[in-house]
């Protein structure tokens, strides 16, 4: 844990209250689901927090010495400042994260929701709840794949009718033109994570990819091969996203030799910077369209 010294009393921490989830109901041929039953408040990211020790000199005619005070500083402070700059231009537009599921994608979604004071949803979790659980999803993949895809579309349709959301969108979101059109209701971000890292998370962390038969008990090479096949099927859909944020490129830009050194905060800053560029371009186009 890093200790930094600064004058006592220099920092006032910002604490945000969690949101209550919006209440909407998803109904389809499989089941019905109230989004209010899903935890949507931004969860606490398990990143280490820095302690800042404040130290200042107390000097006058009679007394000399020092005073030390310790502060716990939110590592997301810079992200929140950037979000405050971006938010007015965003005007509540929702953000959809696409790409193969990974812990980075999940952490990034929660981070952005917290910084922008948005609600966070994982569309795969909502579909799973509507279907009746993971076992029911597996059964539907074998017996009623069409019904499962319709459920995915219904989830996206209802989410797209709302604003101020960060949605971690499952692969079903890029498998049909209807679903891709629903993503156009917001800004889509392709979170491009190296496949080797995804395979590692599946094998070592037991991470499961929704709607796939990839087994975490298989060898790393077998899982990597299966992940590569899935990526090839989805790549065209991912590429339609408004912005691509590559974990590998972010690592290179920051001078990291290891992509696992990239934090969710690093990725979040990159996302907000790219959104800021999109907003700027949109404004320029709107200004250019105005008559003299």
The gist of it:
InterPro entries: P-loop_NTPase, Shikimate/glucono_kinase. By secondary structure, the chain is α/β, with parallel strands linked by helices.
Describe this structure in words.
The chain is α/β, with parallel strands linked by helices. Helix content is 46%, strand content 18%. It contains ten helices and ten strands. A five-stranded parallel sheet has the order 7-8-6-9-10. The protein has a three-stranded mixed sheet with strand order 1-4-5, with no helix packed on it. α1 crosses α2 (103-116), α4 packs across α5 (145-160) and α7 (195-205) packs across α8 (220-238).
Please give a handful of descriptors for the protein shown:
single chain; 292 residues; alpha/beta; three-stranded mixed β-sheet; 10 strands; 46% helix
Shape: globular
Q: What is the H/E string?
A: EEEEEHEHEHHHEHEHHEHH
User: What's the rounded overall pLDDT mean?
Assistant: 79
Poorly predicted tracts of residues: 1-21, 36-64
Please work out how many helical segments DSSP would assign: 10
| Beta strands, count | 10
Q: Widest sheet: strand order?
A: 7-8-6-9-10
Task: Please state the CA-atom Rg, rounded to the nearest Å.
Answer: 22 Å
Determine the fraction of residues in helical runs and give it as a percent range.
Answer: 40-55%
Which sheet architecture does the biggest sheet show? 5 strands, parallel
């Amino acid at each position: 844990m890093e200790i930094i010294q600064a004058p006592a009393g220099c920092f006032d921490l910002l604490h945000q209250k969690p949101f209550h989830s919006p209440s909407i109901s998803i109904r389809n041929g499989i089941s019905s689901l109230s989004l209010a039953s899903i935890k949507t408040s931004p969860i606490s990211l398990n990143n280490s927090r820095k302690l800042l020790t404040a130290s200042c000199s107390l000097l006058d005619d009679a007394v000399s010495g020092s005073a030390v005070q310790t502060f716990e500083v939110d590592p997301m402070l810079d992200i929140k400042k950037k979000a405050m700059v971006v938010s007015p231009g965003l005007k509540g537009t929702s953000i959809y994260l696409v790409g193969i599921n990974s812990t980075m994608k999940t952490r990034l979604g929660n981070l952005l929701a917290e910084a922008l004071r948005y609600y966070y949803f994982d569309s795969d979790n909502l579909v799973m709840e509507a279907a009746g659980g993971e076992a029911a999803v597996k059964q539907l993949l074998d017996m009623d794949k069409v019904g499962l895809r319709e459920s995915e579309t219904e989830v996206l349709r209802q989410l797209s009718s709302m604003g101020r959301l960060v949605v971690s969108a499952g692969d079903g979101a890029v498998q049909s033109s209807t679903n891709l059109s629903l993503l156009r209701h917001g800004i889509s971000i392709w979170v491009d994570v190296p496949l080797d890292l995804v395979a590692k998370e599946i094998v070592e962390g037991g991470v499961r990819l929704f709607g796939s038969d990839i087994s975490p008990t298989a060898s790393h090479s077998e899982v990597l091969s299966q992940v590569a096949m899935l990526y090839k099927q989805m790549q065209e859909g991912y590429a339609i996203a408004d912005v691509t944020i590559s974990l590998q490129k972010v690592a290179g830009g920051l001078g990291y030799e290891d992509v696992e050194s990239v934090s969710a905060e690093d990725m979040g800053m990159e996302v907000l910077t790219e959104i800021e560029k999109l907003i700027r371009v949109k404004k320029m186009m709107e200004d250019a369209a105005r008559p003299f």
